[in-house]
Q: What sequence folds into this?
């Protein structure tokens, strides 16, 4: 029994693994394991019975956590937009834009996947939507089945890392960091990952063009009366929008100075991108509205279609993320604003009815309840695990790894990669992250960088053959038997499970490459964060002592000042003149201490 008591924490962790391998739901496995080992630990005298009395307070803390309110808001926003037909319209429109080039449909899927990621934040919704809409079209026009499956699954997983991702909200809560900072840190890695997907498709378009054919002329529906494609006016409108965006980005510091009423010399990159693109797209939308309202005939059918389909969700994304990045709204407030904007957009498109609203609310409630139950179970487990000094065991286990920070990061990411075969990102966030975060913090690793790194790694949980959830989602909507295409009336071959698995492997390798880049270049994440403000604590202390009328050196508070200087002790230096008494600081006015502290906080460190 002494051996069991000494190694209580490892036995507890092994017990959790056994619960999970037996197939019990994760939330109940966590709660049951925590309570079981809690009672065992109390009976063995490992920790006092008062440990379990802390549990109600922990649960009340979960219910009072405002940050977690962002989960249902962003989920509702995404489901309303997805079920109101936005994904279908986006894929159709972007597919027409890129269709004439090789790999155009695959590029359209990637770009729309990024847009859906920035609106839904839910991988399942993105993968299923694009699987239902784009898979038949890509198969119809001769795309390779493996590439088609891989690009749809991988694009759907962008919802894992591109804000407003749900996993980033949970990661910020577990790491004790701001959701806004987590969004800022993930902004560049998310779009870099999208860019790597694009480069892979372009590589295939050059070296294996038969796998990614261009859209045939008869499939291009938005044509002008003269037979033209309408790309000229679209290019001019895009150029004008880009010019406005670049101008805003270059003068963002001046905009901030005007907005805040005080001099701003530098602005974070993510804020520049979001606000500048918001301004550029708003200009394009105004031009399109004026053109349609006054029938000016300046824009082609394609340009109008792209503007009215693409820009409203983009403006909603920029409005939500922009207000969060600028500090105008908290993530919870941004999520509420996004949900309201999605309802307005669904109503404006005349696709919002009570049936759709009930479905979206029911799905949001299920997902939010799922998250809360896992969090409650994780809280029960972590409470007992901490009482048994489990974090100290984990710290000793991981800090002894060779290689310092880099060795720790490599070992942790390898572990998360293999755990992702069996656990999804909710479970990893609530079970693994709380154990790793204190060790990372002790090693001097920036927790925002650490959280984004783990979030990118957790993306692989959706792409692992044969356990990847995105592959399961795609399998559920991909044809399993031969079918008749509704446009060409030809018999189409089914998509096999092995084709889905093989198509996922290149994109899985791209995701792992992104993990390696983040370890090698942490500035990809930390460069987007606001500069840390450091304070000179010595200066603050001096200001506070002066404002409170501190006594001279060598005296104490409450001592009566001497009427005359003390006579020097007799000795060889008795003839030396006595020192002048130290000057007493004048008492400060009643409001001076706060003013002094404020002035001291504004002083930079040396």
A:
């Amino acid at each position: 029994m002494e051996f069991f008591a000494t190694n209580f924490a490892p036995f507890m962790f092994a017990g959790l693994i056994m619960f999970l391998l037996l197939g019990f739901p994760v939330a109940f496995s966590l709660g049951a394991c925590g309570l079981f080992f809690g009672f065992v630990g109390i009976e063995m005298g490992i920790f006092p019975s008062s440990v379990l009395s802390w549990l109600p307070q922990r649960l009340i803390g979960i219910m009072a956590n405002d940050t977690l309110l962002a989960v249902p808001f962003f989920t509702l926003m995404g489901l309303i937009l997805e079920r109101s037909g936005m994904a279908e319209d986006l894929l159709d429109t972007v597919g027409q834009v890129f269709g004439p080039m090789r790999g155009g449909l695959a590029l359209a899927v990637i770009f729309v996947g990024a847009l859906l990621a920035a609106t839904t934040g839910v991988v399942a919704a993105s993968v299923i939507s694009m699987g239902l809409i784009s898979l038949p079209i890509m198969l119809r026009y001769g795309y390779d089945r493996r590439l088609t499956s891989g690009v749809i699954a991988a694009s759907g997983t962008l919802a894992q890392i591109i804000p407003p991702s749900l996993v980033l909200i949970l990661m910020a809560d577990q790491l004790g960091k701001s959701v806004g900072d987590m969004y800022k840190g993930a902004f560049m890695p998310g779009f870099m990952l999208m860019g790597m997907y694009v480069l892979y498709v372009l590589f295939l378009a050059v070296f294996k063009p038969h796998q990614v054919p261009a859209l045939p002329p008869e499939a291009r529906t938005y044509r002008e009366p003269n037979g033209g494609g309408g790309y000229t006016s679209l290019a001019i409108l895009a150029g004008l929008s880009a010019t406005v965006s670049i101008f805003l980005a270059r003068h963002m510091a001046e905009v901030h100075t005007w907005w805040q009423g005080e001099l701003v010399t530098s602005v974070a990159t993510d804020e520049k991108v979001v606000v500048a693109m918001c301004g550029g797209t708003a200009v394009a939308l105004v031009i399109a509205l004026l053109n349609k309202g006054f029938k000016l005939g300046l824009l082609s059918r394609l340009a109008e279609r792209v503007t009215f389909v693409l820009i409203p969700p983009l403006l909603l994304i920029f409005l939500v993320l922009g207000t969060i990045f600028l500090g105008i709204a908290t993530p919870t407030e941004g999520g509420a604003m996004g949900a309201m904007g999605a309802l307005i957009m669904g109503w404006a498109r005349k696709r919002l009815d009570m049936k759709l609203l009930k479905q979206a609310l029911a799905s949001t409630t299920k997902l939010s309840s799922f998250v809360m139950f896992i969090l409650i179970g994780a809280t029960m487990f972590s409470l007992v695990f901490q009482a048994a000094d489990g974090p100290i065991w984990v710290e000793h286990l991981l800090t002894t790894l060779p290689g310092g920070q880099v060795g720790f990061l490599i070992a942790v990411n390898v572990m998360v990669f293999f755990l992702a075969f069996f656990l999804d990102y909710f479970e990893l966030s609530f079970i693994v992250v709380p154990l790793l975060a204190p060790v990372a913090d002790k090693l001097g690793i920036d927790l925002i960088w650490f959280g984004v790194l783990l979030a990118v790694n957790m993306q692989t949980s959706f792409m692992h053959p044969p356990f990847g959830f995105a592959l399961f989602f795609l399998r559920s909507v991909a044809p399993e038997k031969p079918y008749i295409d509704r446009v060409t009336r030809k018999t189409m071959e089914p998509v096999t499970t092995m084709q889905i698995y093989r198509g996922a492997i290149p994109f899985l390798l791209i995701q792992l490459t992104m993990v390696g880049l983040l370890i090698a270049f942490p500035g990809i994440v930390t460069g987007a964060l606001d500069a840390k403000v450091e304070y000179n604590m010595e200066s603050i202390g001096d200001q506070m002592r002066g404002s409170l009328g501190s006594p001279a050196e060598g005296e104490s508070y409450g001592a009566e000042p001497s009427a005359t200087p003390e006579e020097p002790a007799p000795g060889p230096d008795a003839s030396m003149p006595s020192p002048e008494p130290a000057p007493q600081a004048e008492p400060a006015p009643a409001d001076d201490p706060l003013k002094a502290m404020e002035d001291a906080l504004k002083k930079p460190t040396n």
